[in-house]
Write a structure and sequence with these properties.
two-stranded antiparallel ribbon, single chain, Four Helix Bundle (Hemerythrin (Met), subunit A), 4 strands, mainly alpha, 4% strand, 272 residues
Amino acid sequence: MSDAHSSPYLAHHFDHLEQQSQSAVLGMWLFLTQEIMFFGGIFLGYVFYRVQFPDAFMAGSYKLSIGLGSFNTVVLIGSSLTMALAVRSAQLGHKQRIQKYLLATLFLGCVFLGVKVVEYSAKFEHHLIPGHHFAYHGGGKFVLAGHPEETGGMHETTATVKNAVSASKPVASVPHAAPVSESETTGLHDGLISVTPNHVEMFYTFYFVMTGMHAFHMVIGIGLIIWLLILTTKNRFAAAYYTPIEMFGLYWHFVDIVWIFLFPLLYLIGRH
């Protein structure tokens, strides 16, 4: 029997380690492909409604903390680096380095989730959770197409909105709204450019779905890191076999890339 067939790392249904590794890579990329389609559908829905209600989505974005979002972005980029170093250490067969970098990745992942807990808590506190108790109170003025008055370099006027939204939810507006022409308000009630809590609530629905699913993937990743740490302690990996760590590295990088798209879409666009 050859060394390949006698390897303790070789599963019985594979002929050699190379075949086993290639099968794992194929399976992981198929998995990531369906993950791309899953998140792609959510992103597509977000873009569609963002185009329909840009002011409302911008108003919702104002309530998010760029500081916390930027900090989490740096944290995840750092975790991608430590994960890449863990894979490299596995290729070289350095057990202690594998453990060190996996622990660093685990720590950064927990930091990211801790920051999300802080952000979610703030949304609960300010009643920005989509549902019956959702309450958005925005400042600013409404921009009307007819008979505006010049104020601070912009055409603005205050108004009482009637029949714009249901009586149970007040109408709010985006601060510093840009001037609009009569043609741009075609089809809107009385030529009014406004932000309703219903539309802001839609933004937060996407916010919690998108960031919630991302956080769910992070939780799964943290569980897998703990599993890999246990296997590393049991000497299950060597320079000849490190496929599980390499495959998890692909998963972790994918989760990080998803956040790289989420951050500007939710936190940055329209904030100027």
